[in-house]
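User: I'm preparing a small set of examples for a lab meeting where we compare how different chains pack in three dimensions. I only have the primary sequence for this one, and I'd like the structure in token form so I can line it up with the others. Please keep the answer compact; I'll paste it straight into my notes.
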Amino acid sequence: MTVTRRSLGLAGLAGLGLAACAPRPTTGGRTVFDAVDVHPGDFPTVTAVKWMGEELGRLTDGRLGVRQFPSGQLGSEDDSIGLARHGAIDMCRVAVAALNNAFPETQLLALPYVYRDIAHVRAVVDGEIGTELLNVFENRGLVGLAYYDAAPRCLYNVRHPVAEPGQLRGLKMRAPQSDIFLDTLRAMGANPTPLSFGAVFSSLQTHLIDGAENNWTAYQSSRQYEVAQFWSQTEHSFSPDALLMSKASFDALTPSDRELVRDVARRSVQVMRSEWDRRESEAQIAVVAAGVQIAEVDKAAFAAATRPVLDRYLSEPRLRALHERIAAVA
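Assistant: Understood. Below is the structure token output for the 330-residue chain.
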């Protein structure tokens, strides 16, 4: 079945979901999973899912495969989650921020200044805690396959250098549609504005917003650096991305195919990370060459400003216990 963004309007979502509640068979009994991403076709997450499709094809003599819809062809990340839950698509890659409100267990992956560095967050998601946090989705129509890198997240704006929280006062900063990110930017002194990722570039151009926060690779690949040339190395969040599958699509597979999909998804993480590390380095070089100014910031001041946000969430006993386990990960 060919899926287009137009065919996935809200008016037709329910009908499409009923018609597409299993992986899409094609001629010869081949099963093709439709996978969506808001990032462009050469982005590391898209590259990793492409590798998944090729590896599934290799291991099944072409019986399983993946068809990709990158660059937000089927809507925003929130759209992707809804479409996967209803079985209208099979897979989606989304930022954890898009999952925080619906799946509170994922909040510790996004809260400010929880992780020491990228090695720390990788150790968490690769271990027992990460496995637990992949299992929280199934009661709401999704299956967690893997966590991909998307960090560290930093600030950038069109106005002026920002080295400490007070310099954000009065700036309208785009936030993902997540209470955590809205609260974090507000605690830093900014005026948070929730917008989809695809709307950020034009909103920066028209000054609907003054800035945003994201990682180097997304900042460069989306061309946002062309209009927002003041980067602040806050590293306030090491929030990863989640690769999710429609539970209806997953349950329609044989047990052996389910395990195969899980295994290939797990192995795609290393493919993604290798590409991510390369692209992140290249992105920094490219944006500096384009004139972006990088401000070294007072991280202690940013951590202190956002500590009340972290403490408020940690007042919930389950999150506090999880935070203690995360802090103890080597």
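A couple of notes for your slides: DSSP finds twelve helices and twelve strands in the chain. Residues 1-22 have pLDDT under 50 and may be disordered.

User: Perfect, thanks.
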